[in-house]
Fold each of these.
Amino acid sequence: MTDYKTLIDAETWAFIERTNSYYPPDTIDYTIAQQREIYDRICREFFAGYPDGVAVETSAIATSTHDIPTRIYRSPLQAAVTVLYVHGGGFILGGLDSHDDVCAELCARTGYEVVSVDYRLAPEHLHPAAFDDVMSAFEWAAATPSHQILLCGDSAGGNLCAAVSHATRGHSKTPIGQVLIYPGLGGDRSQGSYITHAEAPMLTTRDLEFYQNIRTGGQDGTGDITQSPLADADFANLPPTVLITAQCDPLSSDGEAYRDRIVAAGGRAYWFEEPGLVHGYLRARHTVGRARASFTRIVDAVAALGQGAWLW
């Protein structure tokens, strides 16, 4: 039995308790509409505002079948890098507002343009709809010759970023790097953090099974790289990758496994497990010291990869 009272500090417990007051641990037993209402409310409660100097524009990418809403954040520095940010939310929650302040802060602190992608959600749109939308957004961003593209996403968004990195190998323009924040990459659920942290605060393996079932409509996606990037047999020629995971999270071992596969294939990847942090800690970056330090690590990774630097 994992002793979370020892692993997790008082600040992080306060964040967990505040989160649970809005978003109870049994929320997956509610209807999807109720879950979205609860999630949207918690995102509003934790909204930290925009830093000075960030210009924000809400737009859309037109495809042959539908529009993909986007929100674009620009800083006065005008660096020739676009960060494509893909939000978390278990593939059923979130949108342009859920990670609005995170994207604004990422823009302000790196000087890079940030484009947040409002991909289609399950169960209305089953896999691979979300993947298709992020691919379309990447192709749209790649059409700007002057800008390099860096992928960044948390949780479900980290999964989608990795899937796009695998799918775009061999394209005329590929991502210059990816920063994956506590991503779910389809790892082995019979070992590692899936066992040690199966009942972690903020995310359990029961939650993961629920989200996967909703995302796929209950279909078996074994071997589908667009769903589970760790299912790929080839990890060569992927962009430089930084993975930052939370120790108290069943998904943490996915970061380690993904790092190991890329390095074994001759690529560059770095994995850092944040001690004592829990899934979803991005919302704690202004109230919890460990989360604040981790967000700085994330910002520094985005900044370095955008400059073509490898610091690890």
Note: The longest helix spans residues 289-306.
Amino acid sequence: MMQQQQIDLIRPQMGTRRALTVRRYGKPGTGPKAYFQAALHADELPGVLVLHHLEKLLLMAEEKGDLTGEVVIVPFANPIGFTQYVDMKPLGRFDMRTGQNFNRHYPDLSDDLVKTVADKLGNDAGQNVKIIRAELRRLIAERRENTGSLTDLQDLRFKLAELAIDADLVLDLHCDWQAAMHLYTSDSSWPDAADLSAQIGCEAALIAEESGDNPFDEAFSLPWVVLRRELGDRFPIPMATLATTIELRGEQDVYDHYAIEDAANMFRFLQRRGIIAGDPGPLPAAKCDATPLSGVDRVTATHGGMIVFAVDAGCYVTAGQELGYVLDVETGDKTPFFSRTSGFLYARVGGRLVVPGGLLCSVAGPEPLPGRVGNLLTAR
């Protein structure tokens, strides 16, 4: 039956204590492993509600003996950010002590992994996966040990990574400000991730091997990408971990009618992947194909003021179409803004005040845009 564990984090100060709650369904080593977490950005709560409903389904499946693998749930992945409030507003995206994004700078084991497994692999792909995963577990423990004095943020990163490092499926649940359902994954995981995208009703699927600064999901996909690139001509190495960041619409979309449907779809996805027994039913028709993350136009403001949108998130737009304007009522400056690409406007900011260079909205286009190289994400 379900096992609950409390994993203590390093105490940042005397008189304080923080811990990760981890719940495990099924039995380790009996089949594929799926890892879910929510609220790594601690003020993004739709995923917390989705996992609440998913766990009800997992409990019933476990009682019926339908779990054929292991499911690890971290219902709230960021106890540090959960306590950060300023002016009664939760600020869970950045660590207030360091200024770092909670979803960046996870350990990159790729280069070390290539060096340590090159002489251990053979012609059996399944055995190679076992060897690689064992080495990943060893390397993450070694990296933690060699880091020395850890901050509470570093400790959190290592402990989350240790929970997910050997999973077949890694699903990190987030949301945007105002957005349609979308996900991020690696080029090498597409079209393998197409069934997940279709099952949960994604309207945009954004792919990149490296988006910049090693966010959580890429810490588990990138080692396989690099191994296949460096050693794939010598050994059979499957893309054994499907890691993805799922953006569950917008931050205000905390509703049971969304969360219950999303949980049911994730349960069906686990059935498709052989972690839960049973018939998931027909796969829903896909609402989108994958597009490159480098094809996303991050539309920004040329001056400060208030944003007046003309287009909602979840609409298709054309290049050059007016999407709204920024108004400075002091100077009278009224500046329309546009996308450089035709595509799907999948997200826009939630606030209506913007500073020069501030993000306004994101449009997913079908082809890479000039200059869209290096760091492809927004908040570093």
Note: The longest strand covers residues 242-250.
Amino acid sequence: MIDARRLRTLRAVADHRTVTAAAAALYLTPSAVSQQLAALEQETGHHLLARDGRGVRLTAAGEILLGHADAVLAQLERAEADLAAYSAGVAGEVTVASFATGIALVLAPAIADLAQSAPGVRLKVLDAEGDASLPMLLDGQADLAVAVEYRGAPRADDRRITRVPLYAEPFRAVLPLGHPLAAAGGPVEVASLAAEPWIGPYPGNPCHDVVLLACEHAGFQPRLVHSSDDFRAVVALASAGAGVALVPRSALRGTDLAAVAVRPVDSELATRKVFAAVRSGAELHPLIAPVLTALTGAARGLAEG
């Protein structure tokens, strides 16, 4: 009989590529992880891991088992959801990891809605960058993630995760007031900014990926001169004439725009796609289901507004 706890360990090692990192994610010691993996190999009768430089990789047998592990773990989430639904009353805490704008736009309104629709559900909010919430979800540090699409994110068909689309928002070009395109009519062509110095988020930030994709589609690599993950700083630098930027529309709310021109752009790729995610099977949990409903309601109100 294969122990499901050891399947979780195998999944963590596959995600993090080292025993040490997997142990940290699981709140175990590296020796405990190694013992669980050794026991799993004994249970299955196959070598599941092989050395790969300083890390490890799954063998062919390990990859086969991992595919089944994802299905088993999802079914266990559904079992927990069914048992929780059977219990009398719905009360408890749901931990949600979200980037800051997602907290402001959909998570805070969802909390207000839950106070009326499901008063027994309490949310614990963790502020996380857009590329950090999904790993936190998969590692069990969060029950639900509000995340954005980015290069390297788990694919939409990843069986470990159930996604619920929330909203998509366009990026805006932020230009110094003295820029030749600042007062022009119509959307700014991204290609027309190819020779400019750029201001933008650091690599790894999902918004950095959106900017790169839009510029690559326009035929150039942006010359990123100034870097900040704080869009207030990005706007301030543009105000000083330090360069141009593409910024999500909602990130401009409450920012001093007196010394910049904010213009739409001609690229559909300059869009931030936001979704909620839970571990597969957990979407039926009586604590998580009303949170998803509240989030989709808040996103619908955002679109209507």
Note: The mean pLDDT is 90.
Amino acid sequence: MADPLAQIVGLLQPGAPFSKCVTGSGPWRVRRTQSPNPYYVAVLKGSLRYRDQLSGEVIVNAGDFILIPSAQDFMMWSEAPSADNDLVIDPVILPGGGYRVGSIDGPIDMRALVGYCIFQSEDATLLSSLLPELVVVRGEHRLAMLMQLLGDEAVGSKPGREVVLQHLLEVLLIEALRSTAELGDSPGLLRGLSDERLAVAIRNMHARPGRGWTVAELAREAALSRSGFHERFQSAIGMAPMEYLKAWRLALAKDLLRKREASVGEIARQVGYRSASAFSVAFLRDVGVSPARYARETPGLSGMAKEFEGAIA
């Protein structure tokens, strides 16, 4: 059976992250508003506090990890009481390349590895919307080991570094997402997969996207009434079943077109269309260009990561 979470993360095409070690001393505050890209924090020593407009305040202790899939406006601050005048505008860059917030001379009471992930897929906004607004993982040994590997690789210069970083990041995201028990009230794929009955329907959609699914058929797979299934799916995932299926098929089609390994007709059949012409009409309506033109003009993975260099702390 298909693993929807692994497929979603794979289609997001996570790029190599920028990682920096940040140390803190005394009172400090950091606010970031400039990037919609996923942001993560792994606290190695001490603790810090996090808050955004949707999630409220979260205490992050040593051994904890947080992932913010869409980090558009958030604040972090010290465990020590802080005020507005403790807001860090330009963190101190240390000789070894790390960042210091708070007192430059005081004893270190917080150490964290922070960084940006970069989803390089054109469908990143759609796909990342299926993730929780905030992922909090506490005390997971496997995650800590992955973070250590990621940090070591990020500062190294061994051959194949970018490939290793990309695969480590994929594993890290999957491990973080499947480890979390703190989903809050936000809808998304994880909430759907945590519902045993909805999970059956979701896995079937991912395993057989080419089948002509109806809401009634998916409801039977989930052992629910049609109306009950529709309402439960909408509440858990944040979109209707057919809307989700359409979005998944479109994301798959784009990925297959980018790879240029199959004809438009073959791709049409794989994602549930009876003919290449029907697929082309639907694709043109939703994307704005024909499948053939999309495959021809869409570039491969780019150096998007450079845009965010230096925007870590």
Note: DSSP finds twelve helices and eleven strands in the chain.
